[in-house]
Specification:
Blueprint lengths: L2 E6 L28 H8 L10 E5 L3 H7 L8 E4 L5 H16 L3 E6 L3 E2 L2 H15 L4 E6 L10 E7 L5 E7 L4 H10 L2 E11 H11 L1 H12 L5 H8 L8 H6 L5 E6 L3 E2 L19 E3 L2 E4 L5 E4 L5 E4 L4 E5 L4 E5 L6 H11 L5
Parallel strand pairs: 1-2, 1-4, 2-3, 6-10, 12-14, 13-15, 14-16
Antiparallel strand pairs: 4-9, 5-11, 6-9, 7-8, 7-9, 8-10, 16-17
Helix pairs in contact: 3-7, 6-7
Length: about 350
């Protein structure tokens, strides 16, 4: 059965401010190489599908940018949701557009802004998930945890289906630290990376059972003529339940399977996460752009301006320089950059 990737690229996150802005969100940033996060995600899927076969679920204001990043992808494959309403509406719209165009296919749904260090095991896990999805299972990849992280959701594995796959016993919300330690020690829990593989038929069956209002709207979109589609979508979109696919479907669905994988996955969640994913110097610093550092340790210095950033006698800090903003933060406070961006929106809205 044909496999159709659906890359979710509608986020407008603030955790990489000031490099990330409302008109330049994380999926378009070149944080870990010469390609944007979006481009790297699509390139990573080459063993499964070429960029021309990918669909991109994004917001209206990012559609042109997605086309520029992926010129091989037809504009008809850039699916622009009228307004942000979380992942369930975005995936439902994408699945509907794809079903209108292709009929039955296997949907490979994944975020645009994650990092994979080792592509080979990641692709092998996806191929395994595809074979299970052809048997009408909904399959998710479970990332083997390496630490008791409290910022991720977890998936508990159940009975084995074969040597590499298991049934899903439960989706678990973000735990406290002690609970996360027990998850790690048990070997039964995996990080939820938000990667799902399922047939269009299976998706719409679960949507009908778990989210009947969303299903009814999707059928209106499915039945619309090409001439009326945009107007019907605009008229009905506000009625779509604004919820995640995890909460709206996956936590309630039947016939779920998990394929565990160790692939050096990261959600690249904040500035302090970058050194572990990138080259650092002998002082433990990640330095990008024009940087001169002396007696500087364990820091992230990301210079996207034409000026020089020079540091002396500091450690455990984040410095991000753009043409119009300089962010200076301790590593420990960098997770709270959203609160700072809220303040910027009030005082200097053009910089948010």
């Amino acid at each position: 059965m044909k496999v159709t990737p659906v890359v979710i690229a509608g986020g407008s996150g603030t955790r990489f401010w000031p490099l990330s802005r409302q008109n330049n969100p994380k999926q378009f940033l070149k944080l870990l190489g010469s390609d944007s996060m979006l481009r790297a995600t699509v390139e990573r899927l080459l063993p499964i599908a070429p960029p021309a076969d990918c669909y991109i679920a994004t917001g209206e204001k990012y559609a042109e940018r997605c086309s520029a990043e992926l010129p091989e992808t037809a504009k008809s494959h850039i699916i622009a949701e009228p307004s942000p309403r979380n992942t369930l509406p975005a995936i439902t719209l994408a699945a509907t557009v794809i079903k209108r165009a292709l009929g039955e296919t296997i949907l490979l749904v994944l975020p645009a802004d994650h990092y994979i260090a080792r592509t080979a095991p990641f692709i092998a896990a996806l191929k395994k998930a595809i074979t299970l999805a052809e048997k009408e299972l909904i399959v998710t990849l479970g990332i083997t945890p390496t630490a008791p992280e409290t910022g991720f959701g977890y998936i508990k594995s159940g009975d084995k289906l074969d040597e590499t796959a298991c049934k899903v016993a439960a989706f678990v919300e973000k735990p406290d630290y002690r609970t996360a330690e027990t998850y790690l020690a048990s070997g039964e829990y995996f990080w939820n990376a938000g990667i799902f593989v399922m047939s269009t038929t299976r998706f719409f069956k679960e949507l009908a059972a778990r989210q009947p209002e969303a299903f009814a709207l999707s059928q209106k979109w499915l039945d619309a003529t090409q001439e009326d589609f945009s107007q019907i979508l605009a008229d009905t979109w506000p009625a779509m339940p604004a919820t995640s696919i995890d909460y709206g479907i996956m936590e309630k669905a039947e016939n779920l399977a998990i394929v565990p994988v160790e692939c050096g996955w990261s959600d690249v969640g904040s500035w302090p996460a970058l050194p572990a994913l990138s080259q650092i110097n002998d002082a433990g610093n990640m330095e990008r752009g024009r940087v001169i550092s002396l007696n500087t340790q364990n820091s992230v210095i990301f210079n996207d301006s034409d000026k020089v950033v020079a540091t002396l006698g500091v450690k455990d800090i984040i410095i991000v320089a753009t043409s119009d903003v300089i962010l200076v933060s301790s590593k420990g406070d960098a997770q709270d950059v959203k609160a700072l961006v809220d303040l910027v929106k009030n005082r200097e809205p053009s910089l948010a």
